[in-house]
Structures are given as C-alpha cells and as structure tokens.
Batch of 2 targets.
Target 1
Amino acid sequence: MDRVGMVRDLDSLGRIVIPVDIRRRLGIGKHTAMEFWMTESGLIMRRCVGEACILCGELQHLTYFKHAWVCIFCMNELKNKR
Ligand SMILES: [Zn+2]
C-alpha cells in the first residue's frame, strides 16, 4: 500500500473528491462503482469488482478470510509457503 501524500477534506455531506491524478492512475472513470472496506487501521476504497479473490481476481471457489475474499487456489499456495 502506497501513501499518496494528499489530504482532502470531506464536504458538508461527507463527500470527498478523488484527485484526478489518482483516478487516472487507477483507471477510475466517471460513474465507476466504488466499494469501501473497513479495516482495523482505517478505510480502504477501491473500484467495485464484486466478490473476487483479493490476490488473483478469481471469481469462483472463494472463502471469506480476515475481511477479504480469497480463492482456494491462493489459500493453498499460501499454506504451502510455510
Ligand atoms: Zn486467488
């Protein structure tokens, strides 16, 4: 995770503008659906991909593990790295 070094204030309705440089870099266009993830350290916002493996993007064989979807293939790979 990279800190981008930009600070923005929420407006009176709780909205925030994502700087255009960041939107371009991440391929976020107008009307892109965004989703929010709450973690122990704060809030993560990313382009909505629905339920997909956070490591490889697989859409099937998912299990929910520590606030994220992970596929069984990545789970097995992680288990074998011990
Ligand atoms: Zn995976």
Target 2
Amino acid sequence: MTLHIEGLAKRYGDATVFAEVSLTVAAGEFVAIVGESGVGKSTLLNCMAGLDTWDAGRIVHDATDIGALDAEACAIWRRSQVGFVFQAFHVLPHLDVAQNVGLPLMLLGRRDEARVARMLEVVGLAGLGARLPQQLSGGQLQRVAIARALVHRPALLLADEPTGNLDPTTAAKVMDVLLAQTREHGASLVLVTHSEAAAARADRVLHLTSQGIVRA
Ligand SMILES: Nc1ncnc2c1ncn2[C@@H]1O[C@H](COP(=O)(O)OP(=O)(O)O)[C@@H](O)[C@H]1O
Ligand SMILES: [Mg+2]
C-alpha cells in the first residue's frame, strides 16, 4: 500500500503538536520516523490509522482519502488494511493470549486457529495461547501485540515503539519478525521511535521535529 501524507497539522487548543508533515511511504517500504519524546510520533501514527483527527492536510492510502471516510467506513477500512502495534499494547485483559492474537481475524469473520498458533510461534510465544495477559511479562505482552498486528496480513503495519520494553536481544528478534513478516507479504511498515538503534534497519529514516518532517 502506498501512503501519502500532505501538509498534515495537528493542534491541541493553542498548542501545535506538528505542522506541515508531508511524506510518502511506498508499497513494501520500511520507513522509521525518529523523534524526541513528546514531539508527536504517537499522534502522527494514530492519524495514519484514522484513529485520531487532524486540523489540516491529507492522508491518502492508495486511492482512499482517510479524512473523507466516516467513522464506520474508516473502522472497516482499518480492520482489513492496517495492523497497529500500540505503545501501551492495548491487550485485552479478559481474553487469553490466543484470543487476543486472533481478534483481528475474528472481526473480519476469518477465524483461523492455525494462523494464530503460527503467529505465536513466530514471536516466540508458542504454547502460551491459553495464558491470560496478567500472566505475561512486559516483553511477552509486547510480542502478543505484534502477533496480533500481523495475524491478518495487513497491507500497512504501524508500530509505535515496538521494541521499547524489550532487552536488546529480544528487541533484535522482534525486529527480525516484523521485517520478515512485512517483507513476506509486501506490506509497508512505518515504525516510530525515539531510538536511533530501533530505526537502524529501516529503508529510510525520517526525523520528526516541531518543524515537521526532516530527512535524515
Ligand atoms: N489528548 C491530548 N490533549 C492534549 N495534549 C495532548 C494529548 N495527547 C497528546 N498531547 C500532547 O501532544 C504532544 C505529542 O504527544 P505524543 O504524540 O504522545 O508524542 P510522542 O509519541 O512523540 O512522545 C505532547 O506534547 C503531548 O503532551
Ligand atoms: Mg509516543
């Protein structure tokens, strides 16, 4: 999927989070957006998924102008096209690990236990499907969130600090998984992070500042 952002601006009242963010992500490309804490990385990623609104500019995925969709159309579009790894995981506490990972498939009416088991194996959580989230460590929860984001083979994967809670060895493994899975399906990957190390493997690194996007 090609992602095109033009002149995006976001404000909270009088406070400008960012102004004039413009960027294009090609189909199959891995772009990392690096910026200091508070610069608006999570906000920008939420806008890309149509999970937040903006004040000026456009976001277009292939031929779909996200800002022109109503809430329901946007939710339907997001369900099928987007995988999102949230900074705070957003794993549902009352569902077990396998149910959490399988949620995107269930919402699409495409339950697939074998695919869920495969994704758990890919992220190193084989055999933990029946556990509840509270029985997992932070690093394991982050991997549940990653398996869930990938399970329905989205055309666009958006990842918010996906290795932020992991030790360097696990972080490298998780990046291997993200990259292998996106490459396998020709998906585009946008990763936001404050860590230059996490961005090192991207095809392209952009920097987000209060002035907008600056090329590395
Ligand atoms: N709901 C909100 N209301 C007001 N300000 C907000 C809200 N959400 C985020 N912000 C502010 O927007 C800025 C960008 O936040 P965020 O996107 O979380 O940054 P980052 O992910 O780069 O750390 C921060 O200054 C934050 O305080
Ligand atoms: Mg953030």
